[in-house]
Amino acid sequence: MAKRRPALFVCIAYIFGIVLGNHFDLSLTLLLILLLFGFFLCLIFLIIKRHSASSLVIISTLVVAGFFQYELKTKVFPPNHIKNFLSLDAYANLKKSVIISGNLIKAPDIRKDKTFLTVETKSIILDEKSLLTSGKILLKIRRQTNLFNYGDFIRVRGFLYQPFIPQDPKAFDYRKYLERKDIFALMSIRSPKYINILFQENKSIFVSKIVLPVKYFILKVFGSNLKDPHHALLSGFVLGERRGIPKEIYQMFTNTGTLHLLAISGSNVGLVVLFCFYFFLLLRIPRKSSYILTIPAVVIFSYITNNEPSVVRASVMASCFLLAFFWEKEKELINILAFSALLILLFSPLSLFDVGFQLSYAATAGIILLIVNPDSLFSQIVNRFKGIIKNWVVLPSLVSLTATLSTYPIIAYYFNQISIYTFSANLIMVPLVSLSVIVGSTTVIVALLSSTLSGLFSAFNWLCLSLTLKSVSFFSNLPYSTVKVSSPTYLFLIFFYLFILSFFAGWKNQKTKRFGFLTLFILGIYLFLKLTLNF
């Protein structure tokens, strides 16, 4: 098992180390010593061919590596980091203005009543002293403006501060949310007139000359043919641009458990792969070359959508699959999924605690283990059908059910609510949204040739989007569309996923199935004690 899925075991050990780092505090020096000791000990065991001992040491070293990386990301900052210029007292942060200089490292986030700029700081003027700095801040302008572009080097005066830490441990912690994005301070100003653009500094030709022009062209095509809310909805489905979607529509997606359709995920990347791959085939490009040409399209799409964790995960997976097809190698889905997670967590260990990251991986792992896996119960059910019924009724239904089962506990844990109609709503809306994404992508390609023809495609897309709006409205207005629940305990989560893995995923294995029944029995006893005795 370990030989077939090495990335899975490496990833599990590394994740365990990150979790330990989140709960305990150890010296970086001690962790580094343990890391080096484990590395040399592993070499010794490999030289003397003690493979079982070397495996144990490798696992232990990977745990230490995860612990070390977490401590490195959360505890170690250079002396001139912007975080070190903030007072520990949140009120004290607001008492003294500073002048910050730096460049915009992302395209401006322009909304109806505000604009957000992500600034990589270069210097700070504090008490008339100019000091070099590093680290990111989020600059909030309290009005809409399109004066700024990616790469602008700006200077602004304002007050640095951090969001308050909520007293309720279950409440949304905006400070932690920003820190996971490597943003450690905020600054808010009333008007863009307080910002001076000093010069243009294009740090990435790839972003400024390829990614941003493509993104703006796509949004322009959507906007020229569709009005809101259809324009905003299509931008959300294709690019994850949710800022123009009315609050009441956004809430309807939340209540029906279909909010994932507005968040760029693996399904979007999958559609991009299929669209580009078959587009290249239509151009008579050889199949092997089409695999390679599709990878840059996936990378550009990931950058267009701001490299959200779910997109990075799916993009890494898709690229690995495309390379595997190109080299005609054996493809182990769970191993590739684990490899993509490992890549993300190596650079950003705090992503592990991001809700979107957890939901994305839970849903994808569920589909792989319960649908693709030939030993699973759902796979056995799918294979009993053929043709249209299998591909258009049974398979979509079971994929929707699998995604729901895999993510329900996480949704309940973080949001204390679940949607009763998630399964039914997804069954209807996922095909509609997928069709809208495909037609929207085709509209962009056609717009390069004919604005009239692109208008015809947009008219058809308007119909798809209207049906989507009517569907989400119908399900959200049903009685008891959402049910309030208490956050499940870690013990419940462990037994729930053990039951899913052993019973559903291991259906053909009698020992695994019996273990699943045992897990279900224990889970039932636990729930009984919880409900009757407040266990």
Structural features:
535 residues; OB fold (Dihydrolipoamide Acetyltransferase, E2P); nine-stranded mixed sheet
Write the layout of secondary structure elements.
Blueprint: H1 6-23, H2 28-47, H3 51-75, E1 98-104, E2 109-110, E3 115-126, E4 129-132, E5 136-141, E6 152-158, E7 160-161, H4 174-179, E8 183-189, E9 195-200, H5 205-225, H6 230-239, H7 247-255, H8 266-282, H9 287-304, H10 309-327, H11 333-347, H12 355-372, H13 377-382, H14 387-415, E10 417-419, H15 422-447, H16 451-476, E11 482-484, H17 490-505, H18 510-533
Parallel strand pairs: 5-8
Antiparallel strand pairs: 1-3, 1-6, 2-3, 3-4, 3-5, 6-9, 7-8, 10-11
Task: Report on this structure.
This protein has 535 residues and is of the alpha+beta class. It folds into 4 domains: 6-75; 82-203, Beta Barrel (OB fold (Dihydrolipoamide Acetyltransferase, E2P)), CATH 2.40.50; 209-362 and 431-484, no CATH class; 490-533. The protein has helices at residues 6-23, 28-47, 51-75, 174-179, 205-225, 230-239, 247-255, 266-282, 287-304, 309-327, 333-347, 355-372, 377-382, 387-415, 422-447, 451-476, 490-505, 510-533, and strands at 98-104, 109-110, 115-126, 129-132, 136-141, 152-158, 160-161, 183-189, 195-200, 417-419, 482-484. Strand 3 (115-126) and strand 4 form a beta hairpin. The radius of gyration is 25 Å and the shape is globular.
